[in-house]
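Need tokens for this chain, all 249 residues.
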Amino acid sequence: MSAPLPVPRPDRKVGPMALVLARASKGIAAVVDQIDPYAEYWDARNDEARSAGRPIWFVLGDSTAQGIGAPRPDQGWVGQLAEAVDRTASTDGQPVPIINLSVSGARSGDLIDVQLPRYEALVAELGTPVLTTVMIGANDVFRSPNISRLRRNLGEIAERLPAGAILASLPQAGASMVAKLANDRLKELADQHGLLIARINRRSDIPYRQRLGQDRFHPSEYGYRVWAEGFAEALGLTLAPMIDPFTPR
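Here are the structure tokens for all 249 residues:
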């Protein structure tokens, strides 16, 4: 029987603004209703992965790393990337175990205060990861756009990650100067610390509305496909074809 996780699971609380918006929109309400079951899905997988006895893929980040917006948690970018990771990184033909430490609503400061200590404790316990991926910063831009603080936090995160870890670019760079400056900072940090950058939201052949979930904010499974391709490109991997990605929503 495994001992409890070395750092307690963080509280996952829906923000007051999301609750207000959920009362006004069925689409937002449907996505808010995903938060607890998706977190429970990943918590269960985390416990299984911790006892698997094989090198781990660690995921850190926010709701997008949980797959919020997709119909199922395994249809987010993590789940869609997993098949390609398994194909190249598995040493025994079994899926690479995933420990997903992400938290819906997390900002860069939350990742530093909560997720990184859990990650570091688990790496000390379980050994060198096969892969570490991080998607963080979008909530900083959306909820508290302070570029000085975000740059500082991204710097600390990069310093604490192992060489070869992947940091995702922020998806709002086309509409937010804060996100654009943060992405510039990510490129600098990647060069300094030997990290990789996943350039997400680059494809335009999937219609914009089709790339969004029911709340018109989080990606849909098709939007997450584009994100997964950005991570795959950073890793030099190719994703298997997605079945009928242009079915009208």
